[in-house]
């Protein structure tokens, strides 16, 4: 969903583009859902990296992408985000002296214990074009010694995707299909190891959700890994009540529809922090920090740490009307991909 608007804009301008899927996220049904929803072609190649350690995934991307780049000789390589594939592709392009553009550059959580943080820092150090989503990204890159001639505030391509599908989101019937009413539920997603891997922490979060359900119905889209850990910790009973509706993860359009109609969203996802800010829906993020500072400074996002009692009280306050109104950040207007192509067209 982050790269799709760039692909669409290339096609609109008649710019040849080769779409490489690394296969790091190897749930093909999820991948196809995004491709269909966003109206982009199937990948030209899938490297099929699959699961493995972080070092293995990076190494496989470097090895396999290098071979593909040697055959294709592109004018530039565009990478997005902060996953292992991002860093692997950045290294492959840089080693072959191919101009590298990083979309979502400059974001920093300042927590080097997060694998994504290391990927961001290393990718930004290699990139020739640093496309940022917010002013904090520009400041971080300048602090790290990058020159202003390589830093470009363009907006958020993920919001480009959201704007593109808003009509489909409004037409979705998932809220009524689940027997819900707009503004009458809390939507929850959790998947980060820090929240779901340690049984005691996981149980505390589930107890907190049960407390939230006493004030507002909870819809919990349970990631497969989270469900596995809930079962391993024997916590199913904690969320087995009428006021908590557990569902399988839904597709991109239905997920946005559930977010947009919620009174409150509780998550540990980076993407959802940005989407809820754009949608104007209060969001509580179960993390110590966020790389998306603009969602806290200007948006609807609140960071709540490990104190589940505080999280419960904050959630109840939001439910009672205390949520942040927020506003849409600068240049989160659906045109980030156009700015990216304008800059690359001028400078390559």
Automatic annotation (TrEMBL):
One of its GO terms (molecular function) is isomerase activity. Keywords: Isomerase. Residues 9-344 form the UDP-N-acetylglucosamine 2-epimerase domain. InterPro entries: UDP_GlcNAc_Epimerase_2_dom (IPR003331), WecB-like (IPR029767). CDD domains: GTB_UDP-GlcNAc_2-Epimerase. It holds the Pfam family Epimerase_2. PANTHER family: UDP-N-ACETYLGLUCOSAMINE 2-EPIMERASE. Belongs to the UDP-N-acetylglucosamine 2-epimerase family. This is UDP-N-acetylglucosamine 2-epimerase (Non-hydrolyzing). It comes from Candidatus Anoxymicrobium japonicum.
